[in-house]
């Protein structure tokens, strides 16, 4: 089974929150950390994975991503804090090899 993920990344000072969706979380986080693509996350140094939720299909993940993006920053912060109260990088210790 292939899973999909909705996730949130932030910068080292937790001042910017990026919300995304992917079917390969490890690879996508690696791309953010290495700034493989020029865009929002590379511009604002969003290299810290602070939230993710797994779904059984991409449609569910996209729907949840849209719901998060439509919400306020306070709602995003609550989702993160409920899962990860200290806003630690959830990808610490991951081995990135492809």
From TrEMBL:
GO terms for molecular function: endonuclease activity. CDD domains: GIY-YIG_unchar_3. It holds the Pfam family GIY-YIG. The keyword Nuclease applies. InterPro entries: GIY-YIG_endonuc, GIY-YIG_endonuc_sf, UPF0213_domain. Coiled coil: none annotated. Transmembrane segments: none annotated. The keyword Transmembrane does not apply. Residues 2-78 form the GIY-YIG domain. Keywords: Endonuclease, Hydrolase, Nuclease. Signal peptide: none annotated. Belongs to the UPF0213 family. This is Putative endonuclease. It comes from Salinimicrobium sediminis.
């Amino acid at each position: 089974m292939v899973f999909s993920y909705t996730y949130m990344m932030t910068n080292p000072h937790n001042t910017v929150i990026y919300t995304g969706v992917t079917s390969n979380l490890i690879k996508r986080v690696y791309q953010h950390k290495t700034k493989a693509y020029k865009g929002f996350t590379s511009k604002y140094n969003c290299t810290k994975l602070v939230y993710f939720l797994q779904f059984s299909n991409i449609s569910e993940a996209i729907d949840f991503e849209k719901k998060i993006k439509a919400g306020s920053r306070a709602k995003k912060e609550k989702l993160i804090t409920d899962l990860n109260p200290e806003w630690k990088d959830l990808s610490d210790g991951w081995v990135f090899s492809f």
